[in-house]
Amino acid sequence: MAGKPIKSCLYVAGILLLLFLAHSCHSPSGDNRYVSASGNDLNDGSRLRPFKTLVRATRESLKPGSRILLNGGDVFGGNVVLEGDSGEAGHPVVISSYGNGMATINGGDGNGMVLNKCKNLILSNLVISGSGRLTNKEGSGVVVSQSGYITLKDLVTRGFQQAGVWIDGCDSVTVCRVHARENGFTGLGTDHRNQTTRVVFRECLAENNPGHPGITGNHSGSGILLATVKNGLVEFCEARFNGWDMPRLGNGPVGIWTWNSDSVVIQYCLSHHNKSPDMDGGGFDLDGGVTNSILQYNFSHHNAGAGYLVCQFGGAPRPLDGNHIRFNISLDDGLGCHQAGIMIYVGGEWFRENYFYHNTIVNTFHSALNFDGVPLYLMDPPKLHFYNNLFVSGKDQIMNLQLLPETELVGNHYWAYGDGGFSIGGYRSFSEWSQKTGYEKSGDTIVGEYGNPLINCDYSCLPLHPGQLRQLTLFKPLENSPLINHGVYLSGEMGVGDTTVDFFGKPFDKNDPFAGAGK
């Protein structure tokens, strides 16, 4: 089989991206504009004689090194629009709080702050609040459009009907430690109509973004959504309790996902307890038109939809191809729909070749893996490669495998929770299934396995935040686990890209095979 090795430069994209987008918060002291609720717009804007309103503080154009500093704990009327206000590398424009605590920008029924055609600007240490997702009128906490080299960090964005942070047609944007909650369409997102390049979401929390009350023809209520992105990175982020009030039936939200994008890496993230009134509501998703992207080192649990959805919808603008889903864990996902930890859906054309290896999928209620799609597109099925995964299930380990006959299963380990027995496609014997179907065979040798994986099942140690993922002991193989010396060598012809560690941070050697997310 001729594989398609993913470009090795993609794996260092995160580090290079962060270095490229890093900006200094220090600026010359020549243009500091202080704003306080007890100030006066007739003052000179110094710390001793601050302005009272943001309107006055932004009346004169901002220049490299300018700083607008809001008194911590005060509340200021929002709807602030900065048009073309730009700093320089090393001398950014800064908008932040001073004194004790975080200042609040109240956007009311509109946007909190709009940055349009700006460059080299830092927005930090602020609360940006709307009137509430049911009353705010299509606003977002921070809108960044047609801008570049923007840093948003240490923000709380809440109560907007559209998004906590919305990025449209930008280049080089870093969103770091932003807590987006109680918004409508999504917590943090990018607009699909204009491509955004080189965007980073790092250490962000998207929680309780329930859905947009006015959108009845499409999904809403996602945590973090990257649409039409080139070179994106999402890491150490968490999405939880989103999507529970989407006002429609049909395709729904996901905790963290991307579509119509290329070269996106989602890693070291936690996504759990996301919901949907109907479809989806899962943990992670590579959706229509995603290419050359990676889902790795993530943990998904107790979502209504699948932990990891790979879906090509009808009318997707690009192929779904060359993606790698590896070293991830799923626990009891698919509680509301999909009924599996990993869900593959062939709903459109151009669903091509994708790779799944070294994932641990444990589903005590349903299946580990599920396939579905539209009959027309199932006639031209994708090539899906599953290597060295651990599939533990309460029902059939794999559902509807017959729908995707081009699927390759090699070196995977299977187990039924409570030893309920092997079950795939009506077969109740693993060896019979392998011999008669050719799955889990290399030549004449059976390389897959069914049996108790002997892993740590102490569910009291679920991770509380992404920083705990590397310290996780749940699902680690025990000393005598058959996973440790099981699996196949992952050669380059299998399409497996470069990687150096497993889920638990242990060194990864392709010549030292094992099954599951790590050892």
Cα gyration radius (Å) = 24 Å
Estimate the helix proportion, in percent. Answer: under 10%
Structural category is mainly beta
Strand residue content: 35-45%
Distance linking N and C termini: 28 Å
Reported for the largest beta sheet, the result is: 25 strands, parallel
Mean pLDDT: 93
Total helices: the number is 4
Question: Shape, please?
Answer: elongated
Number of strands: 39
Low-confidence stretches: 1-29
General description of the model:
The protein has 519 residues and is mainly beta. The protein has a domain at 281-519. Helices cover 5% and strands 37% of the residues. The chain has a 25-stranded parallel β-sheet that branches. Strands 4-7-9-11-13-16-19-22-25-28-31-34 form a 12-stranded parallel β-sheet. Strands 37-38 form a two-stranded antiparallel ribbon. The radius of gyration is 24 Å and the shape is elongated. The two termini are 28 Å apart.
How would you summarize the topology of this molecule?
Layout: H1 13-21, E1 32-35, H2 54-57, E2 67-71, E3 75-77, E4 80-83, E5 93-98, E6 103-108, E7 113-116, E8 119-130, E9 140-145, E10 148-158, E11 163-168, E12 171-181, E13 186-190, E14 196-202, E15 205-207, E16 222-227, E17 229-235, E18 238-240, E19 254-259, E20 262-267, E21 270-272, E22 282-286, E23 294-296, E24 299-301, E25 308-312, E26 323-326, E27 329-331, E28 340-346, E29 353-357, E30 360-363, E31 367-373, H3 375-378, E32 383-387, E33 390-393, E34 398-399, E35 408-410, E36 413-416, H4 430-437, E37 441-442, E38 445-446, E39 449-450
